[in-house]
Amino acid sequence: MERIPILKIGPALLVTIQVDMHDQLALTLEEDLTNRIVATGAKGVLIDISGLEIVDSFIGRMLANIASVSRMLDAETVVVGMRPAVAITLVELGLSLPGVRTALNAERGMALISARLAALARDDAADEDDEDAAPGA
Amino acid sequence: MERIPILKIGPALLVTIQVDMHDQLALTLEEDLTNRIVATGAKGVLIDISGLEIVDSFIGRMLANIASVSRMLDAETVVVGMRPAVAITLVELGLSLPGVRTALNAERGMALISARLAALARDDAADEDDEDAAPGA
């Protein structure tokens, strides 16, 4: 396993983490994701961790890193499918994943990203209305 | 890795194969997929194999099995992300994956499933029109 597949689904990129992440694999994933966000103009990144029974501080930091870099490229990161035991362990470790949004499953995560897209489109439309109105004011 | 995560995205179930499949893992995946199709009423199954560098006859048979079982449950299977070298090897092995549809990537696979859903909806609407028209004929 030299790299984790990244799938483009609608406005989002989807990554399913199934294997033990070691340093190189995590770095490759971060780099691949960054490149794909730029190449595709994706507005969201869904990371499914339902396959993980353990999330340690290394994975926690990787998720936070991906979220930070994605945000700079105007894409929101949503971590989905976290197992209850993993959530408990993360809190016990003091890792509350700042800057990372979560959703119960991939479907709800996708809905979050679509809702954000719709809100952005509304804002754009409102801005254009303001501009249209400005000359007349 | 005791089981491969299955994600529900829109009308489809999505599986990303990243690890070496052994017998038990393949059987578990087939069983899990069958249960999820019934539980969710999914109309399509997307299997991403972009992470696989080698597809042997074992994996080929597993894909064909999943496609056959899914079809009986009214879900279409689309294998996406096949690497060029894998396609060549499969043909050389005489495995042309009968009954399995393929698409270049997950996005196009999802479009295939959506198109099938739309066609089914049209057929349903046409049938209802025929029924409505029948008494008057």
Automatic annotation (TrEMBL), chains A, B:
InterPro entries for the chain: Bact_StressResp_Reg, STAS_dom, STAS_dom_sf
Gene3D superfamilies the UniProt entry points to: STAS domain
Pfam families, per the entry: STAS
Ranges for domain STAS: 1-113
Entries under PANTHER family matching the protein: RSBT ANTAGONIST PROTEIN RSBS, RSBT ANTAGONIST PROTEIN RSBS-RELATED
This protein's name: STAS domain-containing protein
Organism this protein belongs to: Roseomonas elaeocarpi
Organismal lineage: Bacteria, Pseudomonadati, Pseudomonadota, Alphaproteobacteria, Acetobacterales
